[in-house]
Amino acid sequence: MEYAYLTSIGQDSHRFLEGTFDPSVNSIKLGGHDVPFDRQFDANSDGDVILHAITNAVSGYTGVNILGGAADKICLEQGIKDSRVYLEEALKYMGDASIAHVSLTVECLRPKLKEHIPSIKASIAQLLSIDPSHVGLTATTGEGLTGFGRGEGIQVFVIMTFKVPA
Fold it and tell me: How far apart are CA 7 and CA 105, in angstroms?
């Protein structure tokens, strides 16, 4: 069988909440993995910017927008805040395609991600049913040129490659 390889781009970003923090919350979700951190995302959901960017990349391939559509119903009407559920919804529309590779770059000042990258990659690989070697993940502060690099939030860009029967 012959295959075509198609690519799609996804992006997402969230600010951190200002002011009073819930002391019982001591981590944020990134790629479905808990990363210890002292701030919270300003988001309706768990704010997992990595999974949101991946969901947007899947939507870029399928043409079915999940975030801002189905995810709003799942989050706001059903009260489900787990971004893994939104990604699972997006994956339902892939048909015969499979994910061949995903490459992500995260821009933030904090939290420092270096020690968490292997766990985040493993979590993403499991969610996408691909080998962890097919997940690329880098992190940068962007030299502090944006609000993300100055510590105001986190931004993620992702490129996904899809293997599609020709």
Answer: 16
Q: Find the distance separating the first CA and the last CA of the chain, reported in whole Å.
A: 8
List, in sequence order, every residue forming a beta bridge with 137; answer none if it has no partner.
104
- Residues 41, 14: contact at Cβ < 8 Å? yes
Phi-psi domain of 61 (left: phi exceeds 0; alpha: psi -120 through 50; beta: other): alpha
Residue matched to tokens 């990134």: 30
What is d(CA 29, CA 94) in angstroms, rounded to the nearest whole number? 25
Report the 3 state secondary structure along 91-140. Answer: HCCCCCCEEEEEEEEEECCCCCCHHHHHHHHHHHHHHHCCCHHHEEEEEE
Q: Report which secondary-structure segment, H or E, holds 56.
A: helix 49-62
pLDDT tens track for 10-29? 999 999 998 766 667 789 99
- How would you classify residue 54: left for phi > 0, otherwise alpha for psi between -120 and 50, otherwise beta? alpha
Domains for the chain: give ranges and CATH numbers.
3-165 (3.30.1330.50)
Contact 5, 161 (CB under 8 A): yes
Q: What percent of the chain has pLDDT over 70?
A: 98
Eight-state DSSP code of residue 75: I
- Please tell me whether residue 28 adopts helix, strand or coil conformation: strand
